[in-house]
Request: fold
Amino acid sequence: MEALQAVRGMNDILPDQVGWWQKVEKTAREVLENFGYREIRTPVAEKLELFARSIGESTDIVEKEMYSFQDRNGDFLALRPEATASVVRAYIQHNLQADPILQKFYAVGPMFRHERPQKGRYRQFHQIDAEVFGIDSPMIDAEIMHMLHLFLERLGVSGIMLNINTLGCPECRKTYRKVLQDYLIAAGDDFCPDCLRRRVTNPLRVFDCKVERCKALITGAPAIMDSIDDECRAHFDAVRGYLTRLGTPFVINPRMVRGLDYYMRTTFEVVTDRLGSQNAIGGGGRYNGLVKDLGGPDVAGIGFAIGMERLILLLQQDQTEPARAAQVFVAALGEAAGARGFLLVQELRDRGIEAEMDYEGRSLKSQMRRADKTGARYVLILGEDELNRGEIQLRDMREKTQKNLPLDGVVGEMLELSERS
Ligand code: AMP
Reply:
């Protein structure tokens, strides 16, 4: 029978890769928790309407990429393509704005978009997502980008740059929309069919187009920065000022509009030139108004998402895989020693020491080979002779030393050694 394969664009993460994922997640948790963020876990499926209403009907994500389906009750659902909409939904549903302190959240998990798979672009991918509610101050815009930068620095990522821009408020967007639309109409009808439609329905989305001739047609388009009002400009200037004072490097990229409709004022993206065309590692922005639009209170919001696959691809260019090794391998020879060795392994684990053994009664040579493969620092060898004498042989694989220990004192000795190493 033909063996089944995973769904195209959805990958297994095998044990030899998982060290990267654990490292990234652990670092993210440490940094985010340090900044006052608390974890939230929402379902992978939501009502389709949630994404259509928040991300925007005429975005690529909603128009082309969503895993949407009707369940057995006939309800229209979708696998989440991003996390913000779900976090906002949960925030409203559980009345989380009532908590005077906890207004910063993070989420880690899989997202789903039906894109054309290639290196750095998958149909199931993973994001680390951060969201803050109720703070309108430019301090939080700067802080969240500073935190993102610190996280990447702590991981040892190099070759990245933080791009920032402002999209103004909905009023500025209205002004800009008209200016941009006029420009796009004057630019002629050479745009792709999508852009011909977008310039009428949602002109900003033309900036997301990947078609070369569209990109060429908009090189001279007016920047949104020139259409923003005094208040939005002051906010942006303050954000830049704080970032500079925090020592977080950034560049202003007036062309960056991001592919989601809900952003306003500050938007940002971390990009790299080391991953070919999939150059965005993470991005986010402010979304005041979104919580209200989804039926909640009128509170400010800002957040970002980092793509874990791309981040790990980048890490793998510079670093070796985080090693994971058992501390102790117990090699026992013969039936009686095997049984005693089995109990010893469990006892070591009970005491918090990572231990492994060979359950199949293989030769000493083959057990030593296995011990080596597991990367164990210590090997405990128990033969019939040792067992009769009430002893066990301890080999330190790094120091290349060995000595005999009393069998009933070995757990204590291993505890001491593991505390020291
Ligand atoms: P977005 O929500 O589109 O701003 O995406 C945020 C980050 O998620 C991007 O910067 C990427 O790192 C990552 N990302 C988005 N789509 C994909 C995908 N299809 N495959 C892998 N990573 C993705």
